[in-house]
Design a protein that fits this description.
This protein is an alpha+beta fold. It has 6 helices and 15 strands. It has 2 domains: 148 residues, Alpha-D-Glucose-1,6-Bisphosphate, Chain A, domain 4; 124 residues, Nucleoside Triphosphate Pyrophosphohydrolase (Alpha-Beta Complex). Helix content is 24%, strand content 36%. The strands form 2 sheets. Strands 8, 9, 10, 11, 12, 13, 14 and 15 form an 8-stranded mixed beta sheet that branches. It has a 7-stranded antiparallel beta sheet with strand order 1-7-6-5-4-3-2. The longest helix has 24 residues.
Length: 280
C-alpha cells in the first residue's frame, strides 16, 4: 500500500509546480534537514530546474551536538525524472531508506494547491520510511509555500535601433514555438531587473546593451508572475539567434504583421510611439 503525505499550499497551482521543479527548493529543504545536496549536471541561475537524468546526492552534515540528527549518516542517492506535468519523480538508488520511487502530484483547489507526496511501502520498511517521508514533506511544504508566494519577474528588452524594435522567434516549448517575442528572461534572486536583462540579452543574442527606462507597466502572466519591459540599446555586437531560431527588426507599421506572444502585445501602446519618434 502506498504511503501518502498531503498538504494544501496557499498559492496557485502553476506557481507551486514552478517551484517544485527548482533545484534550489530541494537544496533548501535538505539544508533544513541538516544535509547538503549535490545535483550532477551543469546549472545556470539560482532557480535552475531539475532535469530527467539528474542524480542528486544528499549528505548529512555533522551534528552540532551529540545525539542530534534529522537524517541518518549514510548518503541518499536519487535519480530524477521529470514527468509530462513538469513535476519531478525521485528514484532512490542507494542510502539509508529502501529503494523506492517518490512521486509528487498537485491539484488546484481554487486559489490554493493540494500537493501530495507518494511512495510505495513494504511491511518491514514502512515505519522507517514513514518517519523520513513525514520529515522531508513537512519541511518541503513549508519551503514551497514561501517560494510559491514570491513574485517572479520576467524582463523583456525593447531593443530599438533606427525606429525599429528587435523581435525574436521562439523555438520552444512546443506550444510557443513559432511565436515572436521581445527577448529577455527571468530575474534571478539578488539580480536587478536591469542586470538580469543585460545578462539575458548577452546569452540569447550575443550583444552588450545599456538598459533604459520602462516601456509600459507590469503585465500579469498569472501564477504570481509579471512581465516588465525595458528599453535597451546595443553598444557592442550584432544580435544573433543563439537561443531563438530567428530574429528580425520591426518598425511601428509592421508590429501588427508579426505573430507575437500575447503578453508582449500589451506593451505596444507604449512601444509604438517610441518607434514613430514621438517619444524618446
Amino acid at each position: 500500500m502506498p504511503l501518502r503525505v498531503s498538504a494544501t499550499i496557499d498559492a496557485p497551482e502553476g506557481a507551486v509546480r514552478r517551484v517544485l521543479i527548482r533545484t534550489d527548493v530541494w537544496t533548501r529543504t535538505a539544508r533544513a534537514l541538516g544535509a547538503d545536496t549535490e545535483v550532477a549536471g551543469d546549472r545556470v541561475g539560482a532557480r535552475a530546474p531539475l532535469r530527467t537524468g539528474d542524480v542528486a546526492r544528499v549528505r548529512r552534515r555533522p551534528a552540532r551536538r551529540r545525539g542530534w540528527t534529522m537524517l541518518p549518516p549514510r548518503s541518499l542517492i536519487l535519480r530524477v525524472t521529470v514527468d509530462a506535468h513538469r513535476l519531478p519523480t525521485f528514484d532512490v538508488l542507494a542510502g539509508p531508506v529502501p529503494r523506492c520511487r517518490i512521486t509528487l502530484s498537485t491539484a488546484s483547489t481554487g486559489n490554493k494547491t493540494l500537493v501530495t507526496v507518494t511512495t510505495p511501502v513494504r511491511g518491514a520498511d514502512a515505519p522507517k520510511l514513514r518517519r523520513h517521508l513525514l520529515r522531508v514533506s513537512q519541511l518541503l511544504f513549508g519551503i514551497v509555500t514561501l517560494a510559491a508566494r514570491e513574485q517572479l519577474v520576467v524582463v523583456a528588452g525593447a531593443v530599438i535601433e533606427n525606429g525599429r524594435v528587435l523581435a525574436a522567434r521562439r523555438s520552444s516549448p512546443p506550444e510557443l514555438a513559432g511565436k515572436w517575442e521581445l527577448p529577455g528572461g527571468k530575474v534571478d534572486p539578488g539580480e536587478t531587473d536591469a542586470g538580469a536583462l543585460a545578462r539575458e540579452l548577452a546569452e540569447e543574442l550575443g550583444v552588450t546593451v545599456t538598459v533604459g527606462g520602462r516601456v509600459g507597466g507590469d503585465v500579469d502572466l498569472g501564477d504570481n508572475t509579471v512581465l516588465r519591459c525595458y528599453r535597451a540599446e546595443v553598444v557592442a555586437g550584432r544580435p544573433a539567434p543563439n537561443e531563438h531560431d530567428a530574429v528580425q527588426w520591426v518598425d511601428a507599421g509592421g508590429l501588427g504583421a508579426v505573430d507575437w506572444l500575447e503578453p508582449d502585445r500589451q506593451v505596444f501602446p507604449d512601444l509604438r510611439p517610441m518607434l514613430s519618434g514621438l517619444r524618446t
